[in-house]
Amino acid sequence: MEHITKAIQGIPLNHYILLSAIIFSIGVIGVLIRRNAIVIFMSVELMLNAVNLLLTAFSAYSGDAAGQVFVFFIMALAAAEVAIGLAIIVMIYRNTNSIDINVLNRLKW
Amino acid sequence: MNTLITITVLALVVLYLGLFKAKTLLLPVTIGGLLVALTNALLQWNQNNQPVFKGMMQYDNYAVAFSALAISSTILILLLSKNYFEKISEHVAEYYTIILFSLAGIVVMVSYHNLSMLFIGIEIMSVSLYILAGIKKNDFRSNEAALKYFLMGAFSTGFLLFGIALIYGSVFSFDLEVIKSYVSLNPTKISPLFYSGILLMLVGLLFKVGAAPFHFWTPDVYDGSPTIITAYMSTVVKTAGFAAFLRLFWFCFAPLQPFWMPVILIITIVTLFVGNITALYQQSFKRMLAYSSISHAGYMLFAIVALGGNSGYGIFIYALAYSAATIIAFATLMLLQNQTGSDSFDSFNGLAKRNPFLAFVLTISMLSLAGIPLTAGFIGKFVMFSNALSQYHIWLVVLAVVNAVIGIFYYLRVVVAMYFKPIDRSEVPVPAYFKIVLLVSLAVTIAVGVYPALVTNLI
């Protein structure tokens, strides 16, 4: 465990922040421009994982375990969201035979 | 803490009742259990509770007040659910359980003392709501509402989490006390990460409470969800969102007000105008209520713009008034949907002749939402506006008054339909459960409106 922390600390903290910010932005852009519900869903997971990475890096740098515990909470949430989200997508697919979010236009104005 | 435990255990008990096919027991057990939880919450009043579970939660007066409000509103809404879920499917117990789980999340949200509990509370509530929005499995509108709510909710969670991570990166703790001392001890040396963290958390929280420009999911989700779930979302969930929002900003970020206040100020103004002007054009009563909930979110943001000693009280009384009036509106809408199958304004035509009581109660609720004196809504707006004026946000109050006038127009539209558009219609049957809910909400609306000292300066 010791050498892992050392290896993490070998890279400057700013690099982790930058990497997480880039992954997070990719996730945000994916949610905004993709039309397929599952791809949007995967982009959301990307956002959550960027946060996980950032928390782990901060945690390793400060020697405070709280950040890593938080990562477990996020993972548990991501699993719960996968369960609910896929169920909802299956429900939509059964009714419309499509998972393109452009079919979601019954509710307007 | 007992409140949280009671609600969680109750949810499991209800699930087992469903397993053993005790369908008639479901509602009485749920209501009884919630009354126990409510008593447990009220017993904590003024106990000067310190943070528990290693500083994870603090059940102070603020938390007591908001969880009592959330539990009472849930009781009223569940009373409306008699014979409602049965029409949707066989698995009634699950619906009660999921509502109770989301209520447990709400109790966590209003009493957190650590950012991880804020996150867990919001997610317990939201994940339950994603399911509840889609319980009408074969109704396409309900499906659409569930998917939209789910995608937007998960998206906003991402922002909230990134904000929390950045704040953790500058403070190296999730504890509100530590964050507070970080902010107040060296206000000049706050890391830029912390500022970006505040902004990202702001985006996440504004998504959850449905403030413009992050409101676009609100009307669709409220419109598509089953009406009783919409009632739950627009009262209990909205209140809890604001309680969590205010708790964070009041406790931790208050010294940085010059930094985030202009952002929230602009968002408040945009929210008021978007909510009110779009509500004018609605043909459906349910969708009008959805936009009205956006505009009320704007009024509630006043408490955060003019952050001060009165903010908690302001949000509490506003949420109380808004919840009571909205529950009446949704109860009436459910009765009319049963009769006419539509939720347009036209289905209210001539209601006053056959159902004078129902029409009267709905009129009071609309007046309260519009903020006419002698109703609770007026007191709510009065407290909010006087808070804002005390901090010299004069233009904000002027714009808000303009919006309140626009609001009167569309709220009174339904009153006009009920009293002045006579058509032949049969009487809408009002079951006893509905009468109880309508009377309680009416009593709250009028009592707080006439004698606001009842709830003045509670928090």
UniProtKB/TrEMBL annotation, chain A:
Keyword annotations of the record: Cell membrane, Membrane, NAD, Oxidoreductase, Quinone, Translocase, Transmembrane, Transmembrane helix, Transport
Chief location bin: membrane
EC number: 7.1.1.-
Biological process, per Gene Ontology: ATP synthesis coupled electron transport
Enzyme kind, highest EC tier: translocase
Segments crossing the lipid bilayer: 15-33, 40-63, 69-93
Subcellular location: Cell membrane; Membrane
Keyword Oxidoreductase: yes
One term under GO cellular component: plasma membrane
Molecular-function GO terms, alphabetical: NADH dehydrogenase (quinone) (non-electrogenic) activity; quinone binding
Gene3D superfamilies linked: 1.10.287.3510
Pfam family, one: Oxidored_q2
Bilayer topology term: Multi-pass membrane protein
NCBIfam families xrefs: PRK05715.1-2, PRK05715.1-3, PRK05715.1-5
Similarity comment text for this entry: Belongs to the complex I subunit 4L family.
Subunit structure: NDH-1 is composed of 14 different subunits. Subunits NuoA, H, J, K, L, M, N constitute the membrane sector of the complex.
Protein name, per record: NADH-quinone oxidoreductase subunit K
Species, as recorded: Hufsiella arboris
Underlying gene: nuoK
Automatic annotation (TrEMBL), chain B:
Single Gene Ontology MF annotation: quinone binding
EC primary class: translocase
Segments traversing the membrane: 62-80, 92-112, 118-135, 147-174, 194-217, 229-253, 259-281, 288-309, 315-336, 357-380, 392-412, 432-454
Span of domain NADH:quinone oxidoreductase/Mrp antiporter transmembrane: 114-407
Endpoints of the signal sequence: none
EC number: 7.1.1.-
The UniProt record lists the keyword Transport: yes
UniProt entry keywords in alphabetical sequence: Cell membrane, Membrane, NAD, Quinone, Translocase, Transmembrane, Transmembrane helix, Transport
Major site of localization recorded for this protein: membrane
Subcellular location: Cell membrane; Endomembrane system; Membrane
GO biological-process terms attached to the record: ATP synthesis coupled electron transport
Entry membrane topology: Multi-pass membrane protein
GO CC, any one term: plasma membrane
Reaction it catalyzes: a quinone + NADH + 5 H(+)(in) = a quinol + NAD(+) + 4 H(+)(out)
InterPro entries associated with the record: NADH-Q_OxRdtase_suN/2, ND/Mrp_TM
Homology family: Belongs to the complex I subunit 2 family.
SUBUNIT field: NDH-1 is composed of 14 different subunits. Subunits NuoA, H, J, K, L, M, N constitute the membrane sector of the complex.
Biological role stated in the UniProt entry: NDH-1 shuttles electrons from NADH, via FMN and iron-sulfur (Fe-S) centers, to quinones in the respiratory chain. The immediate electron acceptor for the enzyme in this species is believed to be a menaquinone. Couples the redox reaction to proton translocation (for every two electrons transferred, four hydrogen ions are translocated across the cytoplasmic membrane), and thus conserves the redox energy in a proton gradient.
Protein name per Swiss-Prot or TrEMBL: NADH-quinone oxidoreductase subunit N
